[in-house]
Write a structure and sequence with these properties.
Elements lengths: L8 E4 L7 H10 L1 H4 L4 E5 L1 H11 L5 E3 L5 H4 L4 E5 L16 H16 L6 E3 L4 H6 L7 H13 L6 E5 L4 E4 L6 H7 L2 H19 L5 E5 L14 H15 L3 E6 L7 H4 L4 E4 L2 H12 L4 E5 L5 E4 L16 H22 L1
Parallel strand pairs: 1-2, 1-5, 2-4, 3-4, 5-12, 7-10, 8-9, 8-10
Antiparallel strand pairs: 6-7, 6-11, 11-12
Helix pairs in contact: 5-7, 9-10, 9-13
Length: 343
């Protein structure tokens, strides 16, 4: 790889028993029509070859080092072999695959920090087999945050964003029961989340003056306290603090009127108070082409907006659309980041 050649993206296979290998192989096949930038897979070449054969896909695989991936991407799918092997079985999650899954994440992060990769795109993982193998983190994103802290010595606050052609939506609280949202939601958490969103929209999405629409928590944004006090006591002070810092934030806004066409034209990201408030409109407006983006990390990470789908792994039914969108978005973010760094 020469200095003039853009760095490739590092791709992890996720749980190899799921559809990760399927959508990676299909994405490479569509690389030209989709206009994809070069990427390489951190995985088990034999397992990928077996999955390609079971799917009837003619995908040549080339074992390589990350620095050689870009040069061979057009003629073969570059694969950087893991030290840990994967089971070739599909549809059956197995804790024995956990060391390889974790190794692929570790090595993708290392490749980014060492200048071999421009960012990472992760295929879906399943938490249960990882937990059975002793994995101590709640999930993928939290583990990436821990790796970032190890590398930089600074606290990392990963923020989840669902980004599609029609909407960018960010949940302030994520994978917690709805009953716990009222206790978890704080003014400081909203402020911290919005700061990260505004920063990354500028540096990685090319939005020079980000506009944030902050949703209320209760129906009608509390209706002046008649339907709950959280909007006035927790959310509005956060919006006021953000505006005082020069961040263009509006709210709390009634969530039921935030997502129609005219409303979406007035902001660059919707800041939502809980998981489904963000993900329902995001998936309704872009189910096949929305991307899960992790903001707040010192590196680029995207992933498709779906799970492992064990039940259809190896069947040929898995659509690569969201994974292709994740690859495109990661490449675009890397370009914006490079421009911002050189400005």
């Amino acid at each position: 790889m020469t200095a003039a050649t853009p760095r490739p993206l590092a791709v992890t296979t996720g749980d190899p028993a799921g559809i990760g290998p399927d959508i990676i192989l299909a994405s490479w096949q569509r690389r030209r029509e989709a206009g994809l930038s070069a990427f390489y897979v951190l995985g088990d070449p034999d397992q990928l070859a077996a999955r390609a054969a079971s799917l009837g896909l003619s995908v040549p695989l080339a074992r390589c080092k990350p620095e050689d991936a870009a040069a061979m991407f057009e003629r073969a799918l570059p694969v950087v072999a893991l030290e840990n092997r994967y089971s070739a079985a599909r549809g059956a999650p197995d804790a024995k695959n956990a060391p390889g899954i974790i190794e692929s994440i570790d090595r993708a992060v290392a490749d980014i920090f060492d200048g071999r990769a421009a960012g990472m795109v992760t295929a879906p993982i399943a938490k249960k087999p990882l937990y059975e193998a002793g994995f101590k983190h709640p999930g993928h994103t939290e583990y990436l945050g821990a790796l970032a802290e190890q590398r930089t010595g600074r606290h990392a606050m990963p923020v989840m964003m669902l980004a599609g052609p029609k909407l960018r939506a960010v949940p302030v609280t994520i994978h917690i029961p709805l009953r716990d949202v009222f206790e978890a939601l704080t003014t400081q958490l909203i402020v911290d989340t919005c700061r990260i969103v505004a920063l990354d929209l500028r540096s990685r999405f090319g939005v020079t003056e980000p506009r944030l629409a902050v949703a209320g928590l209760n129906p009608h944004a509390g209706e002046g306290g008649a339907l709950g006090h959280e909007d006035e006591e927790i959310i509005r002070p956060a919006v006021d603090a953000l505006r005082a810092e020069g961040i263009d934030a509006r709210g709390p806004l009634p969530a039921d009127t935030m997502f129609h066409d005219r409303a979406r034209a007035t902001y660059d990201a919707a800041i939502c108070m809980y998981h489904d408030q963000a993900l329902i409109p995001a998936k309704a407006l872009g189910f096949d082409d929305s991307v899960n983006v992790t903001l707040g990390l010192p590196f680029i990470r995207t992933s498709p907006d779906h799970g492992t789908a064990f039940e259809i792994a190896g069947s040929g039914k898995a659509l690569p659309d969201s994974f292709i969108a994740a690859l495109r978005m990661a490449a675009q973010m890397a370009e914006h980041e490079n421009r911002a760094g050189g400005a």
